[in-house]
Amino acid sequence: MKLFFPKPYADFVARLRVSCGFLMVAAFAWFSHPDARALVRGLPVSLIGLALRAWAAGHLAKDRALASSGPYAYTRNPLYLGTLLVAAGLAIASRSAGLGALFSAVFVCIYLPAIQLEQQHLRSLFPEYAAYAARVPALLPRMTPAADQPRAFEWPLYVKNREYQAAAGFLAGALFLLWKALR
Questions:
Q1: Which pLDDT value is given to residue 58?
Q2: Cα separation, 120 vs 1, whole angstroms
Q3: pLDDT at position 7, please?
Q4: What's the predicted TM-score (pTM) here?
Q5: How much is the pLDDT for 22?
Q6: Residue closest to 103 by CA, chosen among 80, 122, 71, 126
Q7: Which residue spans within the chain are E strands per DSSP?
Q8: Contact, 111 vs 83, CB < 8 A?
Q9: Which of 167, 158, 169 is nearest to 61 (CA)?
Q10: What whole-number percentage of the chain has pLDDT above 90?
C-alpha cells in the first residue's frame, strides 16, 4: 500500500480511533432502523468479520514476531478487514445507507492511515516485512495462502489481544438492533 496520507495526519487520526468509535456508536443508535429481513442479511456478514478478527488475534504476537500464519497468510491486515466486515454487516442490519456511508468514510479517513502507520512500524521491527508485504496484499485477501511457517491458532494470544472485547461489542450491537427491530 502506497502512502497517500501525510504522516502528521495519520498520527493525528490514529489518536482519534477510540473517540470516533464512541461517536459511531451514537450514530448507530440514532440512525438505525432494523427489521427482521435486514438482521438476517447483515448479522451473518458481521459474524464473518468477527470470526476473522478472532482468527487473526490468535495468530498475532504484537511486536514479538511477524504474523504471517492463519489469516495473515492471505492479507496483511485481517483485523482491519474483519472490522470492515463487522461494520458493513451492522450497516446492512441497521437499514441505513447513511450509516454505511459514515462507516466507509471513517474507514478511509481513519483506518487506512492507521494501516500505513502500522506498516512503517512493522518495517522498522522486522527486516523480513518487505518480502512478506511483496507476497501478501494489504487488505483484500489473496485466494491461496502465502504462509512461510504455519503456526497454530493460540487461545492465549486471543485473550492477550483482548479480542473478546470485539465479540462483546458486537453482541451489544446485535442485541440493540434486535431490540430496536422488535419495538
A1: 97
A2: 11
A3: 85
A4: 0.92
A5: 81
A6: 80
A7: none
A8: yes
A9: 158
A10: 80
